[in-house]
Each structure stands twice: as structure tokens, then as C-alpha cells.
Amino acid sequence: xxxxxxxxxxxxxxxxxxxxxxxxxxxxxxxxxxxxxxxxxxxxxxxxxxxxxxxxxxxxxxxxxxxxxxxxxxxxxxxxxxxxxxxxxxxxxxxxxxxxxxxxxxxxxxxxxxxxxxxxxxxxxxxxxxxxxxxxxxxxxxxxxxxxxxxxxxxxxxxxxxxxx
Length: 165
Known about the structure:
The chain is α+β, with helices and mostly antiparallel strands. The chain is about 40% helix and about 15% strand. It has a single domain, classed as Beta-Lactamase. A hairpin with a 2-residue loop joins β3 and β4.
């Protein structure tokens, strides 16, 4: 009887302590990414790239590379400005591919956002933006090679998006 009393007292104590303790933190809900849609047309891809190119040149950057991909990350249209580096060519395509398949902008994935991705075809570097038309992800645009102080790749990519809204 005495052992049963101690067991019951122990259970009551544990229950009281757990009731007083703070509830476990619940992670914030993930924003639902827009569903995939039909691939972006070549006409819209060219229009987005032209607007991004215009913005890059407006801010004095002649080394940008601009890629537009369809929802699965396959290249639809690509442009490089005259002073673009070879690595910017690869990064622009990787940024666009990542934004398309994840349906999220690149560069905002937490404290390790600049670490390399485990998949060499994807990147966490900023400059890739999904293209959403009619509530559906139809592709993405990726920009790399913008080195003007106060201006970044994502700002140039956003100019491309704005042109096809």
C-alpha cells in the first residue's frame, strides 16, 4: 500500500510539473506556395529578361546574366550582358531553377542562407524569384553578376517580374 501511495504521489507530481511548464513551441505555419501552372511562354520570358536587362543597364551594371526557366527548372530564355563572368552565367540559371522548383525566392532560408546547397543544381544565393501568373507558378527568373553598391541581383530580377505582372 505504501509503494502504491508513493507511485500515485509521483504521478501527481509529474502531472503538476508538466501542466505548469510552458507548452512546446509550435513552428509558425509555412506559407503555402502557389501551385504549378503551365510553363511560361517564350514571349513573356523575353519580356521579363528585357526588363531585367534594362534595369541592370540603368544602374550601370553591364555584367549581369539573366535566366528564365519553366516550373521544372528547364531553361526557357537566357541573356548575358557583355561583361558577364562565366560564374554569373551558372549562378543565374541555378537561382532561377531553385526559385522555380521550390516556388520561393532564393536567399531567404535562414541563418545558413549563403551556404552551398547539397544539390549542385540549386542554390541559396539571393537573386532568384518565382514567376506567378494567375495564382500559379509558371516559372522563375534568376539574375547574377550585379555588383553596383546598394543594388543587388534580386532587385534586377524584380524589375523583370514587374514587366509581366
